[in-house]
Design brief:
Blueprint (H helix, E strand, L loop, with lengths): L30 H8 L10 H15 L3 E13 L2 E11 L2 E11 L9 H8 L5 E8 L5 E6 L6 E2 L11 H7 L9 H12 L4 H8 L3 H10 L10 H8 L2 E9 L2 E8 L4 E5 L21 E4 L2 E4 L8 E4 L6 E5 L2 H11 L11 H11 L4 E7 L2 E4 L10 E5 L6 E6 L3 H11 L8 E3 L10 E8 L3 E2 L5 E2 L16 E9 L7
Parallel strand pairs: 3-4, 9-12
Antiparallel strand pairs: 1-2, 2-3, 4-5, 5-6, 7-8, 7-10, 8-9, 10-13, 11-12, 14-19, 15-16, 15-18, 16-17, 19-22, 20-21
Length: 486
Amino acid sequence: MPVCLNCRNEIRIENRFCPNCGSQLWRSWDGAVLAKLFSGVEIETGKRVHKLAMYRLWRIGNELGFHSITEYAVPDLVQEGRTSLINVVWKSDEVIEFAFEIRTKAQELDVVTTMKDTTKLQNLSARKKFVVNISNKTGKAYFNQIIDEPKRVIPQRVIPEKAYDLSEIRKKHLRAYESWTDDEDSELSKYYKEGLSVSLLAKKHQRRNGAIRSRLKKLGLIASQNVSEDSKIKEIGLVTFLVKSEKHEKICLACVDENGRWIRPIKPGGFEEKDIVMDNGKIMALFDVVDMKFSAPFPIKHHKENMLFDLGTSIRFVRKFGENERKSLLSRITNSRILDEVSSREELYDELSSNLAQSLVLAGPISLFEIQCNIISGKTHPRIWIVRQNDKQRIFSITCTDIGFSKFIRSKLDNFEGNGGILSSQDVAELKNKQIYFVIGLTGDAIDEDNNIKDGKYAPPGSSIQPRYWPMVVSVLTVPNYSSED
């Protein structure tokens, strides 16, 4: 239930005035009231303003009793075949009461500077809608209300988005759109083979990431995934399970073979616990080594690692990894640089899908991360904040769908009242002095009971929209284990 901001008593959604203290209630709030609410807590300025502003608005909504959601997917708002995301919405029951699109600006906070934000909000069904301009120097917020009459804005002045400008691009990427030379191709090939990421190669060549990927493809250096199905099946052998994650109330699995190659076992309709009972009668757990039969590769879009589980076979338990074996495996297959090279969820998505051309990666070891604790009730997954290791600053957060870790961390948060709803891993005794790793995976498509591809969560049934893929922490692995439970 929403609460009165003045006396903090619960109110009914239809009330315009609080029956307890007489205060005017949220249905009549304008931009000035929202700006006052927002300014109650200072936010850090600089590059992280956008993310922190989203979290601030999300938290205000929760404190007021709404169902507050960040990056709210709206399938009906489509541009160029992609589902639109609204930065923050506050919902009561199934109605969106407030919607916010956030822009960081150096000046002119009272001006909406893009038609994209205006159009998106005008086409969204919500009671009140605002483009929120945040000063990246002061953290001050200005709420510009958008109404549904076409192209009408409060205030009214709208500045069109900037057109393509090569000179602006070259301020950041000096050699953007220049022809490649033979010497550059040789240098690019050399450093790519030595393991440099696309991001680092882009900086080295003073070009954009997309240009580097295109050149690598042209040079034939981005490895092809085309391996014959028969040979791929024969090569698998025993696998070690590193992921047991939740997806749409089913179980998502991932493992590595003896060569450290990722495999996503899939089954029509998804896995349930009864499907992963081994021949010894136990449910398969992390770091179990098993003999699991696959009938064929089943790559779907970004999920090149998909393998169809052979439904006519059982899962044979071989052994469980000991602590030293865990440490050796994780150190051998980890990508220790990936989280140092990205500064947002979008860059992490790009690094996996385009630069590494895979949908799963092990990241770590990680000495510090933080956990957002809006998970005390309900089935909401915890969010993991990635923390920059050198200055301990939060960079961005992603959802954690690891079944075991979600259960574990909920038990730690039952009575937690911490710093702004964020729990540091250093405050959890079971996580201290551990080598911590994240398995990061892309969400995406699944198959139905008839082995047909079904739409991902961001695409409405029966639509032609391509589903979106986003990174999630699908497993938290530690050495020694954070829990004594298998």
